[in-house]
Write a structure and sequence with these properties.
Layout (H helix, E strand, L loop, with lengths): L3 E5 L4 H14 L2 E5 L9 H6 L9 E4 L2 H7 L5 E4 L5 E2 L10 E4 L8 H6 L4 E3 L11 H15 L7
Parallel strand pairs: 1-2, 1-6, 2-3, 4-6, 4-7, 5-7
Helix pairs in contact: 1-5
Length: 154
């Protein structure tokens, strides 16, 4: 069972480090779309999970379009507070991609507009703008893993 987390232009190294650690723990591939708001040798990234970097399948891309072209047959789900459907409304399957935008702006509106049927959100009160990026990625990923029976995980 292999899932994919795609971070489009992530800005905060600690979030990416935490997500990398989650990916290492679940054999999930991590895709980082440039430009990154940090170096992958950043000390903060190390503290947040870079010591697990060797256990993560990390793929670097120069654009999100490159990801789409390279994995043209893949199913992409776009996380956004602007989505109308909940992440739990979908039946996930092996090979799915979960796409998250930068911390300050989220995904480009054009991606949301072009993919309304596969945009997902986490329910929350209106007291906050959004959940933390690494928490959001973990919530969606573990729902997909739960649905598929936690294959190959202890």
């Amino acid at each position: 069972m292999t899932f994919h987390i795609v971070l489009v232009e992530p800005e905060i190294p600690a979030n990416t480090g935490n997500i990398a650690r989650t990916c290492a723990a679940t054999a999930t591939h991590l895709h980082l779309v440039r430009p990154l708001g940090f170096n992958t040798d950043d000390r903060t990234l190390k503290r947040a999970g870079l010591d697990y970097w060797h256990a993560v399948q990390v793929h670097y891309h120069d654009s999100f379009q490159e990801v789409q072209e390279q994995y043209a047959g893949g199913r992409f789900f776009y996380a956004s507070t602007r989505a109308s459907k909940l992440y739990s409304d979908f039946q996930y399957q092996d090979g799915d991609f979960f796409v998250f935008g930068k911390e300050t702006k989220g995904l480009p509106q054009s991606l949301i507009d072009e993919n309304p049927d596969t945009c997902i959100r986490m329910p929350m009160t209106d007291k906050v703008r959004s959940l933390n990026l690494s928490n959001s990625a973990a919530i969606v990923l573990f729902e997909a893993l739960r649905q598929t029976g936690f294959v190959n995980l202890k």
